Amino acid sequence: LPLLLKATLLHLASGFYRPFYNGFYYNHIMNDNGDEQEKVDYFSGSKLVVEASKDPVYSYNGANVTLPCHYRYEPDLGPKRKIRIKWSKLRDDYTKEQDVMVAIGKTYVAFGDFKGRAHMRQAGEASRHEASLVISDVRLKDDGKYRCEVIDGLEDESDVVDLRLQGIVFPYQPPRGQYRLNFHEAEQVCQDQGAILANFNQLFQAWSEGLDWCNAGWLADGTVQYPIRLPRKPCGGVHLAPGIRSYGPRHRHLHRFDAFCFSSALKGEVFYLDRLAGMTLEEAKQSCQDAGAEIARVGQLYSAWKFVGLDRCNAGWLADGSVRYPIVTPRANCGPAEPGVRSFGFPSKGRFGVFCYRER
């Protein structure tokens, strides 16, 4: 074959490779770059070495977090040199998603959503080769991988830190019913519920903690997947092992599914209000406002259930028009025998209590 044709065939073949196990994908879990050998450059008789945290750094929504990164020369070159430090946020495949910050000495510039929130940690006597990044007021979409890059003249070394937000994944269907959302609508409904579309790692973590859901939903990378703990015929078949079932990437405008949303710990509190005769949805919203709060969103209720242990056997309105209640300790007349957030759906009539959210 001509050389050009061979190269084209090789490129096409490589483009269709995916790790495949038991009929579904374990995306990115098998392809962690942890075994990648440390790359070093030699100059002036020394080598530049960059080291970031090997373990994930955990944080939560609204917190301040430091992503550790340091550099050194082997052997040491003595007085601190004028170097450039660059931080970037990466996609799961380690390609660059966005610039975060660039620093030279004490001068730095943060970019995009990180303006006003990202800066360099100041070096102390014990660590004059400091390159750590500080992010304040952490947001849900900050979750992910970050590259710490140190540039000294023509020499360029880097390492990667994994920032993970402590949170909860919950499946979401709109009032119209199952499989009504394209990708962009799924992004919006998660935002409306105080959340974002979950990524694969977050869904995998939720599955490992017990999430079992037979309806397929969008993830942040445009794939459609669903977590199964107990294999059964309607959910991919009984012959498949437990795991994450995948439809792979879907058309973001044409195809319609549910959504898997991700919410983290809250800055404020969720509390319950009720009247003897209950409330309509509009009365419920007004009651929250009268209490100096707003009607809670679905993601806020899930977060309060998971992180604060909110346990209430009384059903209450939420901002999307659904009626739900959170159960930490299952008991008689409070639904199934497992903990969880119960749902009455989206009743057009009826009078219930309300869950409100108030910032601290």
Q: Would you identify the regions where 5 or more consecutive residues have pLDDT less than 50?
A: 1-43
Categorize the overall geometry: globular
Q: Which structural class matches the secondary elements?
A: alpha+beta
**Radius of gyration, taken over Cα atoms and rounded to an integer in Å:** 24 Å
Query: Count of helices?
Result: 5
Q: Strand order across the biggest sheet?
A: 3-12-11-6-7-8
Give the biggest beta sheet.
Answer: 6 strands, mixed
CATH topology of the largest domain: Immunoglobulin-like
By DSSP, the count of extended strands is 24
Oligomer: single chain
What separation lies between the terminal Cα atoms?
69 Å
Q: Report helical residue fraction.
A: 10-25%
State the domain count: 3
Describe this structure as you would to a colleague.
Pfam families: V-set (PF07686), Xlink (PF00193). Keywords: Disulfide bond, Extracellular matrix, Hyaluronic acid, Immunoglobulin domain, Repeat, Secreted, Signal. This is HPLN3 protein. Residues 168-263, 269-358 form the Link domain. Belongs to the HAPLN family. The chain has 360 residues and is α+β, with helices and mostly antiparallel strands. It folds into 3 domains: 45-163, Sandwich (Immunoglobulin-like), CATH 2.60.40; 166-261, Mannose-Binding Protein A, Chain A (Roll), CATH 3.10.100.10; 264-357, Roll (Mannose-Binding Protein A, Chain A). 15% of the residues lie in helices and 34% in strands. It contains 5 helices and 24 strands. It has helices at 3-15, 183-192, 200-208, 281-290, 298-308, and strands at residues 41-43, 46-52, 57-59, 65-67, 69-74, 84-90, 96-104, 107-110, 118-120, 133-135, 144-152, 155-165, 167-172, 196-197, 217-218, 223-228, 243-249, 258-264, 269-273, 294-295, 316-317, 323-327, 340-343, 353-358. The chain has a 6-stranded mixed sheet with strand order 3-12-11-6-7-8, with no helix packed on it. Strands 13, 14, 15, 16, 17 and 18 form a 6-stranded mixed sheet that branches. Strands 19, 20, 21, 22, 23 and 24 form a 6-stranded mixed sheet that branches. The chain is globular and about 80 Å long. Residues 1-43 have low confidence and may be disordered.
